[in-house]
Design goal:
alpha+beta; 120 residues; YaeB-like fold; globular; 28% strand
């Protein structure tokens, strides 16, 4: 079983929670189910539920009402998964700026661990 963590900014905001709180109850329920699958299967969770993007960033894929919702995440050591943030995808591909954002969050998360600011 894998552990899921949520990235938090220096101010203590959780981008994914802020995103998902702004969605419908049905979308939140779908993300809950996918997060359970991710905890169970980790990197073995594939399409249509998850997919690799680039530079170690992956996506959880939720479709609802014609909209495409995504949660971006990465794998850490020892069976740990970090959810960085969520988006509503408007194009076929996840925008590069959103992947870059997840990469920045990953770097920040790792720096906080290295500096002893965060224990997981």
């Amino acid at each position: 079983m894998y552990q899921v963590f949520y990235y938090k900014t220096a101010r203590g905001d959780c981008p994914f929670k802020l995103f998902v709180d702004g969605t419908s109850e049905k979308v939140r329920a779908k993300f809950d189910k996918l997060l359970d699958l991710l905890r169970q299967h980790g990197p073995d969770l594939k399409r249509p539920y998850a997919d690799a993007l680039r530079d170690g960033i992956r996506e959880l894929r939720v479709g609802f009402g014609g909209d495409q919702y995504r949660a971006l995440y990465f794998f850490l050591y020892d069976g740990k998964i970090v959810i960085t943030h969520g988006i509503i995808k408007k194009t076929n591909d996840v925008p590069s700026a959103e992947i870059d954002r997840a990469i920045r969050y990953k770097g920040d998360f790792l720096r906080m661990i290295d500096n002893g600011e965060l224990e997981i």
